[in-house]
Amino acid sequence: MSDAPEQKEAAPAECERPRFQFHRLSDEELRAFVDDFVSGRLFTLHHMSPEDAKRDLGLVFMPLGLAGLGGCGLSDEDVQNIGTIYERLEVAGPRSINGWPCFFSMRIMHKGDWARAAAAIARERERRKEIEL
Q1: Does 98 map to a domain?
Q2: Domain count, the chain
């Protein structure tokens, strides 16, 4: 037996996650988002019906399914400010779930940016209908 005092193992340090902060989009970034949305290069939670989103959103956007919004660093206040969750279709996984693309990453848009984008999307869809050929 050793005369050395017993040493207790140190408890593992808690993993500190940085607090989530919305990146508010500039006008240029919103224009690019609107063009990508209307051109079919993005998938958003707004492509899903409310019933499908409730059932499958965590399967489509895997960070939500694995960690939930709280695990992604969002507070209750942040959750109330979500306008949409989206990702570029080019980064979708090789499989789909219930017919939906599957993403291993996601982007979250502030509701103020989404309100501006949604209005611009409606205008852009109408404008594209009027293109003379």
Answers
A1: yes
A2: 1
User: φ and ψ at 100, to 5 degrees?
Assistant: -100, 150
Query: Is residue 38 in some structural domain?
Result: yes
Distances (CA, A) of 104 to 36, 91, 93, 121: 19, 8, 7, 26
Whether 6 maps to a domain, the answer reads no
The residue range of the domain holding 68 is 27-128
Residue type, 117: A
Give whole-number Cα distances, 58 to 4, 20, 94, in Å. Answer: 52, 18, 17
Q: What is the largest CA-CA distance in the chain?
A: 92
Q: What is the pLDDT of residues 50-109, one digit of tens each?
A: 999 889 999 999 988 887 776 666 778 888 889 999 999 999 999 998 899 999 999 999
SS3 82: strand
- What pLDDT, on the 0 to 100 scale, is given for residue 16? 60
In angstroms, the CA 133 to CA 130 distance is 9
